[in-house]
TrEMBL record:
The keyword Cell membrane applies. Pfam families: RDD (PF06271). Residues 65-195 form the RDD domain. This is RDD domain-containing protein. Coiled coil: none annotated. Its main location: membrane. Keywords: Cell membrane, Membrane, Transmembrane, Transmembrane helix.
Length: 210
């Protein structure tokens, strides 16, 4: 008798595989919910169990984004949001030091640029699951079955709530969140909470939204 597979869990002996009725099911497909026997169950790139039919569909199963690309995307997003206000602040500081006037129009201009970037970020995330930084690196946020994530989950569950908790804990949970990227599935703590993963967008998607 062969040893049980490490990527599946034991189910009730009454659970049967629909393709092999005589075989006991050893896993439940994460996509369709059907039982799968040892012959049918497959492990997807997200390290979860799927039946042969669902795993063979292809588009829903993609390559996990590298840690480097995720870091670059995060740094880029932070830079384009903070840069306008940073340079406006530097200009105002220099003007004060030299006792010269600093026109408020530059601060207003910086605020408008920042607002424009935020709108572009929101539009991209809602449309493709990609911030500007993620689009630059060719990666996107999806659910564990490869389907799009709702805007509410992306903004509230995946970003705002974890950020708020991090502020309340003086950054401790933020550090823990980041360290989770070193898991085998490269999912940060906010990904686990939101049920998401970051993967590479297909070349067709990148060209279509360019």
């Amino acid at each position: 008798m062969s040893a049980p597979r490490p990527d599946v869990r034991e189910l009730s002996t009454e659970a049967r595989c629909p393709l092999h009725p005589s075989a006991s099911a050893v896993a439940t497909c994460e996509r369709c919910g059907n039982f799968a026997c040892d012959q049918c169950v497959r492990r997807g790139p997200d390290l979860l169990s799927y039946c042969q039919s669902c795993l063979g569909r292809g588009p829903e199963f993609v390559t996990l984004a590298s840690r480097g690309d995720r870091l670059l995307a995060t740094l880029f997003d932070a830079f384009i949001i903070s840069a306008p206000l940073f340079f406006a602040g530097v200009g105002q500081g220099l003007a004060s030091a030299r006792k010269t006037g600093f026109s408020p129009i530059w601060v207003s201009f910086a605020l408008l640029i920042t607002l424009g970037v935020l709108v572009a970020q929101l539009f991209g995330v809602a449309r493709t699951g990609q911030s500007l930084g993620k689009r630059w690196r060719g990666i996107k946020v999806v659910r564990m079955d490869g389907s799009p994530v709702s805007l509410g989950v992306l903004l509230l569950v995946r970003n705002l709530i974890p950020h708020g908790v991090s502020q309340l804990t003086l950054g401790v949970t933020g550090i823990l969140d980041t360290l989770f990227i070193f898991r085998e599935d490269r999912r940060c703590l906010h990904d686990l909470i939101a049920g998401t993963q970051v993967v590479y967008a297909s070349s067709d998607e990148s060209s279509r939204h360019a």
